[in-house]
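ingest -> validate -> predict -> emit
validate: passed (alphabet ok, no gaps, 149 aa)
predict: started
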Amino acid sequence: MTPTHPPAPSEKTLRLDAQALSAFLDSAFPAATRPTFGDVVSVAPRHVRMVLNPGPESIRPGNIVSGPTLMGFADVAAFAVVLAHIGPVGMTVTNTLTITFLRACRLERVIADARLLKLGRRLATVEVRMWQEAEDRPVAHATIGYAIP
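emit:
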């Protein structure tokens, strides 16, 4: 007897829309910390856009958004784009995260565009660009890998 495997995830097929993805993120993270991870704006094949309105907990010396805040935001945006394609698999975990801070991030709205670079049965790779006023002036860029159970 041959074991049956669930269908492989597809980079072209969404399993969660923006509303379902937001609901899952709201349930997956503690309510007190959830606002620090941003909100889902849109979901499309291979792409999720999120927005973060950083608060006082995000400030570092120089009155700019801290690196850990941007790293957390990038990680959640990447997690979101993977989940949008594989479904609500909470134990999908980060296995690599490389981030480059490109310019100071002011304490105002930050947008993250997470793009799926590769999606396999067990691993996913995502690129996240974070920007403020103009997409062509990113504040940070990250490449994040996920292990899928």
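The chain has one domain: 18-147.
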